Amino acid sequence: MEPDEILRVHDIELRFRGGMHAPPPSQDGHLYVHKNFAFVSAMDGFLALVGPKRMIEIGIHDGGSTAYWQHKYGLVRLAAFDILPQAAVFARYLARNRLADAVRLHLGVAQTERERMRAAIVDDFADAPVDAVIDDASHEYAPTKAAFETAFPFLRPGGVYIIEDWAWGHQQRWPREARADMPLMSPLLAELMLVCGHATGVIDRMEVNERFAVVWRGPAEISRERFRLADHTIARGFAMAL
User: Fold this and answer.
1) What is the pLDDT of residues 171-197, one digit of tens each?
2) How many structural domains are present in the chain?
3) Is the overall model pTM greater than 0.90, yes or no?
4) What is the dihedral of CA 180, 186, 192, 197, to 10 degrees?
């Protein structure tokens, strides 16, 4: 299957390719973006409203989308997290193009490692808040929630948090045994909706489509040390995991 679009960035090709299956390994001449260009453009429609200069991306795999966002917005700082221990092709790309300071790699870090993530974010954004966060990591409920509760407080008011592929479990009839160990993310969106509905200024609004969810940061002050969604809701019987 060929890439649906190719974009030249610095000294490398970004090859956009969607679908269920992972593309071939990236090489020094090209980085794969694990989604099609239409998907990226749809997210870009929301990011353009923010005009980000400081971003966090959680789940970068080969780093293709990370290279795209840094180039697209001339980001002065992008903190990139992934559970994989290395992204060798992407790291060499950053070194060749003197981008290793603008893009800070945090590899071998799971979404559930709240303290490691928080410490890295504090260090990377000591001088200014974050404009945007993109989560394209586990696509599971608990890890995605942990990452949200860790990173969301570092967004500036008016900043945007995008959760990709929230509806994967609802888009086809999976056999009962398929991905049984991957709890769906849809309950997380319900919890975010309750925070928004509580109207305390934590979440200003949400926009959801079949590909991703967009959460806009409100003006309320939020603790960066311990932020939990359950502390900002009136659930009235709705079951929420702490």
Assistant:
1) 766 666 656 566 788 899 999 999 999
2) 1
3) yes
4) -140
